[in-house]
Specification:
about 325 residues; mainly alpha; 19 helices
Length: about 325
Amino acid sequence: RELARAESARRRGDYDAALGGFSRASGLSGQWALPSVALGRTARESGDLERAAAEWQAAIRLAPDSASLHRRLGKVRRRLGDIEGAIECFRVAASLAPDDWRNHGELARALATIDGPETKEEALREVRLSLELKGEPVRVLQNVEAAILDGMGQPGEARRIHLAILERSPRHPGTWFNLGLTLLQDLEFDEAVEAFEKSITFDPSGYRCQVWLARLHAGRVETLPDAERWVRGVAARRGGRPEDLRADLATWFSDHHNPDIVLEHVEAALVGGDRESIKVLQEAVDLARAAGMELALAEVLERLVQDRDIDETSVRWAKAARSLRQTP
């Protein structure tokens, strides 16, 4: 009865009541794993990933042979940034249920984030085994396979996979974005712009595309001697150390030529990138200073502040605008 009431509360979105109910059921159940499983799921849905991991670890102690529990714990660990812990969980899940395509797919996704040729090779084997076991295309796994091939220096194979996905799902913004990154690997900048613009068409909130379009419009990238080094490193580095990023941006934008288009995409990136607003703002400021567009970006930021309620982001934009106007 306690479990039923807690489950009803979870479905209503009343996570405090659900967590309390499942906790009471867990205390009454002794060696029964179900309440801990439900606690983990509820904690995850409420955004408390640390508690979700702890509850599923408790459930695993009671049901160590449950591949699904190991897989769930691995997914939470990955979201928490514990990639090594996630890989360990997915390996256990794959060993317990070797015919379940999901276990191999999750292991491949985690391995794909680790640098090194041997790890990439293992990730490629796992994702292909997952697709073979599934017996039909799975878009997220195909995108993982393409990303791995990109990282292994095989952008042509990656492009083939992206195009195959787009034949079935021509309006999928994530695949258009990934195709754009792959085209950058081959230094096909015009085609990359087209792919990013397709992605924006189907998902106008995709601020990462806006950032890339700003980058591509801001510099005549074909003339930069180190463009290949930059574009090959950006996807894997995903930002890198701030000092490295600023140095790269200064090089990238040293030959800007279309400030109106640049500012249009920068503004869209700022508005759409609230989840990573600090990172997006820093990139925009770096862009402006490298390209001599400080006052232009300051005006954009000031206009955005006027159109937004006062919050941490608007205060941060206002400070950045003042700093840009004070640039010598």
